[in-house]
Amino acid sequence: MRVLGPVEVTSVDRGPVALGGQRQVTLLAMLAAETSRVVPTSLLITVLWPDEIPQRPESALHNRVFRLRRAIGAAGLTIERRGPGYLLPVRPADTDALVFEAAAGQLPADGGDPDRLHRLADEALGLWRGEPFLGLHHVPSLRHAARRLTETRLELLERLASRLLDRDDPVSAIPYLRRAVAEAPLRERPTILLIRALAAAGQVEAAQEHFHGYRQLRAEQIGLDPSAQIQAEYRALLQPPDSGPPQERATEPRTTFTPVPEPLSPIVGRERELDDLGELISRGHRLITLTGPGGVGKTRLAVELARRKWDGNAAFADLSVVTSVEDVPEAFARALGASLASADPAVDLRAAVCAQDLLLVVDNVEQVRSATSVLLAVLSHCGGMIAVVTCREPLDTPGETEFPVGPLAVPTDQAPAPDVRACPAVILFLDRVAGRPVLAGGDQAGTTVRIGQLCRELGGLPLAIELAAALVRSRPVEEVFGSLLRVLTNDPGSGQAMALRAALLWGYDRLGSSHRRVLRRLCVFAGPFDQVAAAAICPDEVDLDLAIERLTVLGVLAVRRHEAGVRYFLPRIIAEYLARHEPAEAGDATQAHFQYHAGLCRDPQWLDTDLFGRIDVAHADVVAALRRGVDERLDDRATHDLATAMLLYWFRRGHLREALRWSERITARFAQRPELLARPRIVLAGVLRELGELAAADLLGDDAEWLVTAYGALAALADDRAEAQQFVRWTSAAVEVAQERAPRRLTDGIDTYQVNLGWAYLATGDHDASLRSFRAFLAGGEGDDQWRWTVEAVAGCACALLHLGRTRPAALALGGTEQLLERLDIPVTPWTRRQLDAAYAQLVQRPDGAELVRAGAQLDLPALVALVVDRP
């Protein structure tokens, strides 16, 4: 059974098997896309009879299955009835898609014999005869399956080319990369690799030409410049060979990895552990789990490992801010800079990593153990990726290497003062009290021994030692030592957890009432926050800045550098202890948190990049506020703004499945307020289109900008379905609203709608309206940046004029635009190309038609515009 191209079945003995009509082929494709899985009867009926369901649909489906089963039986295949649907049981060798995926998976993660690389690639790629499920992409599930297979094929081409480049064989890599670029012209990784391969093969001019072509295509199709990595590759091409060290080259196509946090203080006493972990990585261990109790320093060790023992890209996934299992894929997507558009998030996460060398630190996995399955799904397909996980217990998964992280070494009770000072736990304590000379004075040896005793009683736990050191910075040394040692000696509990509890709660008890109140209210934050956000949560605190400074000095609040400024966060383990010790503030802190973050999202707009920046910085808390607004039914208008902002954010950031998942909850939340669903539904229409699910959405709204975007989404849906009349309807509505009411920044690009509208009118047979639309664009679209559209509009005028019987201007215009389209390499859609070819075929059969076409090829663009708009 072959699906990598047109769907067909071949028998070894009899050759191609006759499947019957189109419904038979579609039925087989639906079952083949879900090999060895049950496809529900209701779905098959909907797909096979989309317009009018037969009176007895299940009987009609059964008859189709019976005939198909009899047909494919000649090839040794069958169809089984299972429960609510049907199933196509197959072996891996029964379908070309499974054979392809198996062959692609055998490509070595690194190195390998070059002949074997070529053989595996040729075997896998040779199975392709065209787009998967060719001709059946009107069925959403088949379109998704085709996209998944195409993505796997692109990954294979990229991995193969990367391996060949690693082996200094750019000449062999270039053909594979050209195929990848031809299939996905805007995809960054094959473009970077192709520029690199061309340059390495000595084809520098070709590499420069490819960069300029990519830049032009990117500007035309998405209005953006090439990424910083691709521009760095281009700058490297311009570097003279003997001009000194080359400029920094981009090693990978992405800069959107969430960076590993930058520590504010040095790590102490972990040199041996860092060396051991570096050795594990060098020996090929790809899943390393740092285990140990809370506060032992697992996260700090993982961060330092990424900074000091790893030279490549590193990313950080913080699962401590994840409050729901459903949020796990997005947490990984934010860490890896991925866009979640596939039904299986692992597909998109793997595409983000691809063949790159990457160390991913996954922190606090015990928070959501289900994250393990997502991580393994990515690791198993990305040979250059290494995961360093922090968890209180091992993951218990195959291939895991557990690395227990113990407390710092402490001195024995009989150790002399010099040996005490050399112990890692004491070194950490003295480092954290730097700035206060605790060993100054007469009895330095006695104080040193007391410090050793304190570190020993604290079990060598780094977090407890740092909290104790923070207390010493603000209180008399002997008071802290005496009080802490009494608590630790008299408390019936034992172990490291008790040591941490004693250090934390002793310091907490010595906070003033206002500082305690601030700390309890700050527990409402799900992620890092700044002082502005803290002020919104603590509006009645006069000395809030002083309180935050005090809490930071005591080590209760941690500080994190961020490009948006200094941000604070409450370590999760401290929040857990506080929750057990004293209940959190009443609901007014939660309400203030909700209102503040709803305010960040007030009146969201499609083009509001500042909004998306604010959400990037406070993402965990904005999502937490949205969850409260939806689940606890807080203020409708504020929840509406939060919902719309987050749907827009997920849509613009490419997290389409996250948007789709939340849209169901948002729709249920506002079931009694349908007027508040208008904007969310508009965003949902865009999400559905991007996912290829072209089900109509009920779009409402009075805002001009939102209406233009909504009509544009509907027009795109109609265009995808080849519904010319609907495309005309919605495109005309978008143009009308934009010209009458929308802001200038939106109408600047709306003129190009007229060109698409002209083609749509041509498809409906309204040639006069088609000519008017093309001319409307030409009347105002002669700017320097509009030449591509101008050429296409003149070509459209030629087709419309021909249908209206005006042969001479049609022939001249067609000859001129065909020359420009070819010379300037302007892409047109396949449908537009068919219209131009049909017009050419008609014209050359008429008297003087061929001569007029050749004459038109000599005209420049201004002359062609004047010709089709009847200007002298």
Can you describe this structure?
The chain has 872 residues and is mainly alpha-helical. The protein has 41 helices and 12 strands. The protein has a 5-stranded parallel beta sheet with strand order 7-8-9-6-10, sandwiched between helices. A 3-stranded antiparallel beta sheet has the order 3-5-4. Strands 1-2 form a two-stranded antiparallel ribbon. Strand 11 (558-560) and strand 12 (567-569) form a beta hairpin. Helix 13 runs parallel beside helix 14 (345-353), helix 32 (704-720) runs antiparallel to helix 33 (724-740) and helix 35 (752-764) packs parallel to helix 37 (787-803). The longest helix has 27 residues, at 140-166. The two termini are 62 Å apart. Residues 240-255, 694-702 and 744-748 have low confidence and may be disordered.
Quick tags:
single chain; mainly alpha; 41 helices; 59% helix
What's the helix and strand layout?
Layout: E1 10-11, E2 15-16, H1 22-33, E3 39-40, H2 41-48, H3 57-72, E4 80-82, E5 85-87, H4 96-105, H5 114-125, H6 140-166, H7 170-183, H8 188-200, H9 204-222, H10 228-238, H11 271-282, E6 287-291, H12 298-308, E7 313-318, H13 328-336, H14 345-353, E8 358-363, H15 371-379, E9 385-391, E10 401-404, H16 417-421, H17 424-432, H18 444-457, H19 462-474, H20 477-490, H21 495-509, H22 513-522, H23 531-537, H24 544-553, E11 558-560, E12 567-569, H25 572-581, H26 587-600, H27 609-617, H28 619-631, H29 636-653, H30 656-669, H31 678-691, H32 704-720, H33 724-740, H34 744-747, H35 752-764, H36 767-780, H37 787-803, H38 807-823, H39 830-844, H40 849-856, H41 861-868
